[in-house]
Amino acid sequence: MRVENACHTHPWTINTMQSCLAGRYFNLAAFNEQQIIGFYIGEKAGPDFTLMDICVAPDFQGQGIAKQLLAAFIEYGEKHHADNLFLEVRETNTRAIALYERAGFSEMSVRKNYYPSDDPSKKGHEDAILMGMTLLFG
Ligand SMILES: CC(C)(COP(=O)(O)OP(=O)(O)OC[C@H]1O[C@@H](n2cnc3c(N)ncnc32)[C@H](O)[C@@H]1OP(=O)(O)O)[C@@H](O)C(=O)NCCC(=O)NCCS
Question: CDD domains, per this entry (predicted)?
Fold first, then answer.
């Protein structure tokens, strides 16, 4: 929650976080010594795996940690025979979009007014971009 709260304008609640740590969810954390400095949370829904959350504590951003976490998410999908990987991202989150595109995700559709937004120009909501990647097995 410390990393989640430091990273997001609209962080998950602790209840949401706790409900996403078992069952059909999977995750990986990055550590600096004993301290969590980043993580991802994924969800399995049949052949489709979704990246629900990925973040890196501000002091550790720009060092390739998200890139490694995202590579681990993709590798988990490959290892567990996912057909497709999906994620949603705020249209204004250009940094995350660049990260996802470089990893091989591409835009599939736009979900209008999907996220709450504090940006005065956004009238309370902003669009989500749905991105996806198909995994191919030989
Ligand atoms: C998005 C986020 C996860 C990136 O984490 P990070 O550890 O700083 O990212 P990395 O250092 O692994 O960088 C990976 C890629 O991100 C992009 N990136 C990183 N820093 C960037 C910057 N300052 N400007 C633009 N793009 C940048 C680049 O595409 C970079 O690839 P490169 O190594 O080829 O340059 C992090 O900024 C974050 O936690 N943001 C808040 C939470 C969030 O928005 N999560 C995603 C939506 S749920």
Answer: NAT_SF (cd04301)
